[in-house]
Records
---
Amino acid sequence: MTEQEWLTTYRETVCGLYGYLARRTGGNRELGEDIVQESYLRALQSWNQKGMPDSPAAWLKRVAQNILIDYLRRSRRIVRTETRPEAGAADPPAADPHKSLEIYSAISSLGRKKAAILEAFYYDGKSVREIAKDMEISERAVEGHLRRARRSLKILLPDLQSNGGKNE
């Protein structure tokens, strides 16, 4: 891979990768920047050995997602050892980066299809119709996946039920 190919790919993918992570890290800029940097370092190592993948943006997003999930697993272990604040003192999920990360972690644990549909609907703001078209499934199927995914999230994140957001 030449330096020019690398720079072109970087310029074409960096904004999208930052946007992808910004929505999934609860706006934690430092965490997003660290993950983007680590993703490109891994790309540099891998692509120099194996060549650039057909879809560099998709490859980078997948690596970034894996790095974020690893971060969440490590931070969960740390959070478990700390004392939790009183129930009334917590910030709403959108304002609390740790809560946003917890939500994203729970979504990631639902399985690829449910997670992809929830992400498209809530993070990317796509309509049921757009998701159905992108995934080549019926709108009813998308609605069913959303319903089941929301139920699963209520079980995984029972303390968030009273915090508003889009409901069924």
Note: Residues 92 and 163 are 7 Å apart (CA to CA).
---
Amino acid sequence: MIARLREDMNTVFEKDPAARSWWEVVTCYPGLHAIWMHRFAHGLWRRGVRWPARFLSHINRFLTGIEIHPGATIGRRFFIDHGMGVVIGETAEVGDDVLMYKGAVLGGTSLNKGKRHPTVGNGVVIGSNAIILGPITVDDNARIGSGAVVIKPVPADSTAVGVPARVVRGPHIEPKPSIILQHGQLPDPVAEALRAMEDRVRQVEGELGELRRALHDAALAKAETVTAAVGDGEA
């Protein structure tokens, strides 16, 4: 257990440059507190002690602003940065080395009792206020941009942005995403589509201009030919 606690604290230092000391991490990081309390609540849930587990998760939400259902499965070295407003549903599964920013939601879209929340692979980064809905899979090392609403699976090593989210980078789309999500360098698919449309319009206008010039030159040449033929006939 002590080794796992040390691992959790080392994860904070690795993923948050603002962390300065062990004491600061232990006392001032709600994301860390939420994970520790969730582990205890999850242990109770797995043993069938359901109401105490739910009540502990409720206390966790009250103290940290992070709501994690005790039934959710969370891997190692999971870090929630800031954390306020994060919601993780009952059947959600989160892999190892996942980084999640504030306001992110792993939510459900169904009223059935089965699997209804996302499965998040290893090394995934989920940006601020991103929402991932339904029993979909976000594969290993994927990146979910801030504010994205993900309702379809996201392949490994991809970046998804927008509402609804679209995959704009992946293993066959260059350049490949970096290891840590750069919030200020995410692509904008709408802006890229508009730029592509603008480039195409300019290309078409250029081709039309060349066609007009060619038709004008052909008309002039024909007029000169007709004039020359008339002059020869009069002569």
Note: The domain at 2-187 is CATH 2.160.10.10 (UDP N-Acetylglucosamine Acyltransferase; domain 1).
---
Amino acid sequence: MSKPHHILHMITPAKNLSPFDVNMAVDAGWTTVVPYTQIEASEVTGLVQDAIFSRGRRGVRCTGMFIGGRDIDKAMDMLQLAQSAMVPPFEISVFADPSGAFTTAAVLVAAVERQLQKVHDTGLAGQRVLVFGGTGPVGTTASVIAARAGAKVSIVGHKGDEHPRQVVSACKERYNVDVEPVDGSSDTLKEQLLVDADVVFGTAKSGIQVLSADNLNAATKLKVVGDLNAVLPLGIEGVGLTDDGRVIEGLNGAVGIGALTVGNVKYQIQQALLKDMIAAEKTQYLDFQYAFDRARDYVAQH
């Protein structure tokens, strides 16, 4: 009997599934990829159980599910629902990565942590971290990951602190982390925040500069800056696209991590996780924490 095909069922609450994710899955070795769009949480159990009972014990090990979308909380809910729907020994691995937020945030935090260790002989624990664009999926995920690693994280609001307060409340309730909302709606307020900052994450939308060189002059304690904006103007002035620990001029030795540096490793980590699903002897449930652990290992070896 021939070996069963590796089938990946890719679900999303959105209108379309990301072509990026489809390409990644096929390149990782999934021979058949099937998209399901506009999926509601109430449909996850039925989809999972259709998948697990249709291939037998041998085929179920060659079956997986990917959860996309844009909402990280919905993705985590769907991941939990999928796990609850399993009926051992009929179980499949499930990987959640909405908008690539989990793998991107994992790599950003891991890369910054690596530079803290390399340049300053310290980790994230106790570091004051400012997250600009922290109310979006990548920024929120990065905030949770850094807080879990012991950092003192503040999500900066560009129109006051109302939206960050909502996000912070959800982070505490869902992920049991303490994250602070702060107002960064003016240059003066940004610079006041930067005085005590050890780390800055730039996770705002493409083409939006959140910090200028003048703003950064206030950051006398700054150690590492990571910027994900790859579209001009870059999100944080002075951080180049391919920077990987390059010293930023005028910042007392602070180093930068650029968008393409993060993106190149994100590609490797997402593909690694998709391959993990195929190779694993036991069922895998892959979320942002799993992605962070993998990213940590990767950046430590490269």
Note: The two ends are 41 Å apart (CA to CA).
---
Amino acid sequence: MPRSPELGVIQGLASSFSPEASLEMFRRICLIRYFELKVARELTAKRIHHPVYLSIGQEAVAAAISTVISGYKIFTQHRAHSVYLAFGGDPVKLIDELLERPTGCNTGKGGSAMIQDPNIGMIGYNGLIGENVPLAVGFALGSNQKAIAFFGDAAAEEDYVYSAMGFAATRKLPVLFVCEDNNLAILTPIHVRRSWEITDVVKALGIPAVDIADDPWLIAHHARKLCQNLPAFINCRTVRHYWHVGVGIDGPPEWDRLALMKQELKKLGLETEKIEKETMQYVENLWA
């Protein structure tokens, strides 16, 4: 299916959300964006000395989902700053982790890839691509509690991901699977790697699934709906603005969801400038 910022769009959906809900999603997206841009500057200035996996461009997925679900155990992979911040992780502890301090969210030993926070139920990444999917399924099986697994389109190509999802379907386990589909495995696009679509495979396993763009209202709408019938799967076509790791850039991004959301909020008559400025200052104060 072709990538597009309009994929799966539902006309008039944004206007069905309350102004408070729309602005809260925007606020969380801004927090992630400006936090990550500050991280990029610190990395460029060589004040961070280990690999960093930035969420710039992919903020809307975690921001939208975090506004409509709560109480889930969260299983993430290496690109998880966005999830940590959206679900309420302590940003100071994330800063400390990036600066290798013992007060970091993983005592300064995990770095960017392995962040976690038991206070928000977030389990850190351990290094095996896609491992969080079977871990989320195992947690749901053993505890009968809800879990959410965030992973990328490359992780979806690992065999144990689909076997775990198939098991979740068979046992009807309460897991929401979310693929942040940025079309890249490091720097290799999907069309080079495979000829099949993730959503088609998941549907064949008997799991309700949608394939949509990273429009926050669209994500929140489907997350709320699908969580009534778990397990379920959301494939979000999103855009990674920087390289897989670090601050390299190959060219302009396909689209910028933050800019698109600002346009939509303006159409709804909602003011964004104050939130953006306050968030930028908040992030600067955190790092100061």
Note: Strands lie at 73-75, 122-123, 147-152, 175-181, 184-185, 188-189, 209-213, 232-237.
